[in-house]
Description:
single chain; alpha+beta; 5-stranded mixed β-sheet; 3-stranded antiparallel β-sheet; elongated
Amino acid sequence: MSSVAISITENDLFKVLGDVIASLVDWPVLRAQSGVVLPDGDCILLAGLEDAPLAPADENYLEHGDVRVTRIKQSRKWTARIACRGAEGHDCAVRLSVAFGSASIYRKFQDSGMDISPLFADAAAFPAIPIEEAPAPAQWSFSLILQYNPYIEIPQESASTLAMGLINVDAKFPYGG
Length: 177
C-alpha cells in the first residue's frame, strides 16, 4: 500500500520559520533536538511544541486529468518555541516577538509559497534559574503560533466503463453447489 503524503510537513514549518528568522537577524538558526551541538556564541533554537486543529477537516473531490482524488484539508495551529541564546538574547527575542506581529512578516511567510502564516507571538521571557546555577549563556524565549493549512489527497477508484450483462437467476449460490 502506498502512503499518502501531506502537503506541508514539519520540516517545511521549521524551514520556512528558520528562513524568516534568518532574514531578520544574523545569528545561526538551529532546530532544537537531542544530539545537536550548540555553537559557541549567539544562536537561535527552534522547537515544535504543539500541533492542533483550528477547524474541522474539509473534503473535496477533485479530478486531475484521469486521476480522481479526495482532498482533505484542515487549518491547523503549530506552536513553536523560539529561544535566543547569547549576551544579546533579550534584545533578539523582543525584536523577533515584535516583528512576528507585523504585516511585513506575514508577507515573508506568503513569499515562501507555503500556506503558512503567523497568528500570535507572546512576550519574551527568561527562564527561572536556581540561584546556585550560573546562567551561561543567557537564553530568552517566546512562543509563536503559526497557522498552516495542509492537505492530503487520497486516490479514488471509479469505473470509467461499465459492461452490462444478464445473470441467470436460477444459478445456485455459492457457485458449484
